[in-house]
Every structure is written in C-alpha cells, then in structure tokens.
Amino acid sequence: MISNTPSAQTSKRFLLAGYGITNRAVATQLTKRGHQVLLGDDGLGSDAARTQAQSHAVSLGLELLERPSEGEWAELVRATEVLVPTPGLVESHPVFAAATRLDVPVISELDLAQRWDERPNLAVTGTNGKTTVTNMAACMLEASDIATTVAGNTDTPLIEAIDNPVPQAFVVEASSFRLGHSCCYKPEVAAWLNFAPDHLDVHASLDTYRAAKAAIWRDAEAHNTAIVNLDDPVVAAHAPQAARVITYGLHEGDFRLANGALWAGTHKLVDCVELKRQMPHDLSNLLGAAALAMTAGARPEAVRLAMLEWDGLAHRLWFVGEHCGVRYFDDSKATTPHAVCAAVRSLANSAQSAGKGKVVLIAGGRNKGLGLGPLVEIADALRAVVTIGEAAAEVGRVFAGRCPTTAAGSMLEAVQLSANSACEGDAVLLSPGCASFDWYGSYVERGEHFCEVVRELMGGSP
C-alpha cells in the first residue's frame, strides 16, 4: 500500500517510463508524498517539449534520463520498486520485459489517484464515443447540482484532478492505455460503450487490447455498477457477474430507445425529435451517458435538460456547413474503420430518410496497425472516395472496383476533389480511419484545417 504521509517507512522508489503530461503529474504527486522517483523517456519530441520536460524534472529535484538503451532501462527497473508507464507506451517496450523478469509491479495513474482520493470515480471506456459520453454525463451531473470534473484521457489526468477539492465526483475517460496497466482500479460506476479493433500499434494483439478494456470491470464487486451496452456483443459478453449491472441499447435495456423516445425504465426522458443530434450513435451515447449519470445520482429532469442542450463535440461528425446543396462534416476524430463505418451509415441513413444522396468520403492518414478491409462494408453508401496521407494507397485498394477513388496530396486538394465529385443532396465527410501524424500534429489540427478549407470554399460561393 502507498501511503499519503512521507516517511522513511512508507517511501517507495518509482520508475516513470515516459515523461509526458500524465507522468509529470504523477511525479509531482509522488515527490509531494515523499516517494523517490526515477525518470526515463525515449524521446521528448520537439525542442520545446524537451525543454519543458527537463525543466519540470529539475523543479522537482529529479534527473530525467533521455533515450535510455535497453540495458539502461533494465538498470532503472532493477533500481525501482514500482513501474508507472506513460499512457500509450508500446507493450513491446523493453521496460515491460525487464519488469516481468525482475518481478516489479506495473501500475497506472488511475491506481494511484484512487488510492489517494476517496471521491467516486465514474469511468467510461470504449473504442468510440468515450469523450462524448464522458462530457455528456458530466453535464447531466452538473445540471443535477453534483460538482464534477472530467479527467483521465483528457488535458487533466486524474492524478492531477484530485488536487481540486471542489468536485464531488470525477468522470474519468479511461483509455485502454491507462486501463491496460492498472492493477486495482475499481470505479464506483463503469461504462464500457463498444469494442472494435484499434491501437494495434501500441497493444501487442487484439486480445491484449480487449483485455485492457475489460479491466474496467475486472475487480468490480457488489457495491460497484457496470453500465453495459447490449448492442455490442463483445461488451455484453464481458458483463461482470459480481457487480450490479445496468443495461442500455437502441432496442432493449434498462435505458433504451422506444416509440421515438429515450427511456429510463418506465420514465420517458425525451422525445428524439426534440434533440439537436438524432443519429443512431448520438442516441446510443445519450443513453449510455444517462445510465452512468443517473446511477450516480443525476435527476431525470436534469438529464432531460442536458440532452436537449447537447450539440456534440468538435471533430465528431460535426456539421461544418452547406455549399451548393452539399453538406460538409468533420469527423477527424474517427481514427478506426469501425468509427468511419458508423459515421457513413449514420449520414447515409439520414440522407435516405430525407430522400437525399450519398456520401463522398475523405479517408487516410497514418494507419495505427489496423486492417482497413472493414471499410468495404460501406462502399454502397459512397459516391466516391478521396484518399489522403500515408495510407492513401491502402484505402484506395479497399475500394478499387467498388466506387471511384482519387488520391489527394493536401487537404485543400481533397476538399476540391470531393466538391467536384459530390452531387446535390450528397454529404462530404472527413472520416479518416487513421491517425493524423503524417500530415498533422493531432486529429484536432487536421479537423480544424478541413473546416478552414471548407469555409473558404463556402465563402467563395456566388
């Protein structure tokens, strides 16, 4: 057990492998509590990032070892008692093999934060929709006068958020990168939204990725609650036996869609026609958020108000505008084939119901080790595909012979080609299915550039 109180008896030696935002927050908390900290990082990126990391280490009286060799990593592990990897450190990294060989336990920031703070954790994981549901649930709780902070896989790690005395609960976006290295994290309420292949550039296999997600319910007991999406067979199959289970789904569940409305048991929360976003994935996310929030004490009337006000998050199937009868959508956050398919199906279904056209898809970027073959399932809904980035040829091969495909050398060219391919009533969708790091620093930067180019196109209309 790790104590809050610095003393010679309780002080432990920690190795932080990687020194980004999260582990800098971990180092701050550990040194404040009197623990010894060793630091190593394989590469700190830009000169500015390197300077920031080194300055932070110095401010804590620590030495940051840059680019350790495999042997140096092993020596660092040998000199420590606990390993805390940075979120996203590849499972093949030599530090893990050394920790296994030397029987050094591996933990995450989530474990430490929960040991040091007793306030409830309401956690959300899933391949897609984590950020949306996390923020939705926080809005519902805030509307119920329950002070919350969103933390975890955000700009604020949970280990940093616990310094704030105001929140009554933390809504935690729990990525596989954090859950996979957690040893005993046990949220009071935990939602698993969905599962599809992702992050195989970090996880050793699909099985280890699935196990990382399932860790959110691994230690659940009778006083814990699991929020289970019945529409996802992988999630439903992992529903814990020991915990209380609350279900949701578009067809059945404790929280469900029925008769054109969203329901919590026998209580109607909202008619779907009142909502600003009504696509199937939006409704599923609203149900999951409501289940999480109401289990944690949110009032039905507050949940309804939050639902009515919800207008989505940027870069997640975000409507940019319409030009010459063609609608443009920014879905830059979609970095897996599963997310792309969901977005295209949502737009195609809404277009069909409105008697409109098809989708022109902009896809590509840096593949995260995923097979892009599942994209073929949406070929019939596409007018054309414009491919971008390092995976352009790979995306093109998926759709060869199924729909017109053109490669673009820039986002400007991609938007121009898409506009030329689209017919009135169509939608142009940036939903890359890949990471952004070939052309951009983040999916946000990619999405913002797309929106900028589209707005310039709209501004040039007669």
Strand and helix map with partners:
Elements: E1 13-17, H1 21-32, E2 36-41, H2 47-59, E3 64-66, H3 70-78, E4 82-85, H4 94-101, H5 109-116, E5 121-125, H6 130-143, E6 148-152, H7 158-161, E7 169-173, H8 176-179, E8 189-192, H9 206-214, E9 225-229, H10 233-237, E10 244-249, E11 255-258, E12 261-264, E13 267-271, H11 280-295, H12 300-309, E14 318-323, E15 326-330, H13 337-353, E16 359-364, E17 382-388, H14 392-399, E18 405-407, H15 411-421, E19 427-430, H16 443-459
Parallel strand pairs: 1-2, 1-4, 2-3, 5-7, 5-8, 6-7, 8-9, 9-10, 10-11, 15-19, 16-17, 16-19, 17-18
Antiparallel strand pairs: 11-12, 12-13, 14-15
Helix pairs in contact: 3-4, 6-11, 6-12, 15-16
Give a short summary of the structure.
The protein has 462 residues and is α/β, with parallel strands linked by helices. Helix content is 36%, strand content 20%.
Q: Mind explaining what this structure looks like?
A:
The chain has helices spanning 21-32, 47-59, 70-78, 94-101, 109-116, 130-143, 158-161, 176-179, 206-214, 233-237, 280-295, 300-309, 337-353, 392-399, 411-421, 443-459, and strands at residues 13-17, 36-41, 64-66, 82-85, 121-125, 148-152, 169-173, 189-192, 225-229, 244-249, 255-258, 261-264, 267-271, 318-323, 326-330, 359-364, 382-388, 405-407, 427-430. With 462 residues, it is α/β, with parallel strands linked by helices. The strands form 3 sheets. It has a 9-stranded mixed β-sheet. A 6-stranded mixed β-sheet has the order 14-15-19-16-17-18, with helices on both faces. Strands 3-2-1-4 form a 4-stranded parallel β-sheet, sandwiched between helices. The chain starts with 12 loop residues before the first strand and ends with a helix.
